[in-house]
Structure prediction request, 228 residues.
Amino acid sequence: DGGITQSPKYLFRKEGQNVTLSCEQNLNHDAMYWYRQDPGQGLRLIYYSQIVNDFQKGDIAEGYSVSREKKESFPLTVTSAQKNPTAFYLCASSIGRTTYQPQHFGDGTRLSIL
Amino acid sequence: GQQLNQSPQSMFIQEGEDVSMNCTSSSIFNTWLWYKQDPGEGPVLLIALYKAGELTSNGRLTAQFGITRKDSFLNISASIPSDVGIYFCAGPRGDIWDTGKLIFGQGTTLQVKP
Prediction:
């Protein structure tokens, strides 16, 4: 089945450690997005990529980094510079670069601090 | 900046009741999207609206694109326990070019008592 796969489902980070969240899609979508969700809040955009080898900062990019070397993959690294990383992270993709092609989401990764 | 305000923030209803929730903004939107998020999962697209005044149904769900372009409504008829979750509205950023970036409301949490 086509879809978006995020892994791992749960992740724990130690102080000073970088961790990488995986996002893979087999939908042949051009655009991919990373969001952060905190309890009782909506989704906030971290980074997005509209095409391979190109990505842009969203609203809360500080302490995060991404890469887009392949169309199918858009990994997110939570660096040690992100002082409050505990959250639910969601990856999304869409066919094109406009909102006329709605975003579809993976099932998320929950990141916690040890 | 642009914001989407959802109301109510939470609802606790009896199974079989109808549900209404809305999303408002001080800015005009050209697209309205409604998503549902089950606990521990990613949001799933329910309905997409692209035209002012548009009324679209998806099973027991009906959504409307407000004629002023500043609001949208989602109704659920004859609620069942599996309707439990968080409902988000979303719309495109007010960028000059449609970049595919979305703004999300804070969500309406729905609980259904069997």
In short: The mean pLDDT of chain A is 91. The two ends of chain A are 35 Å apart (CA to CA). Chain A touches chain B through 30 residues (CB under 8 Å).
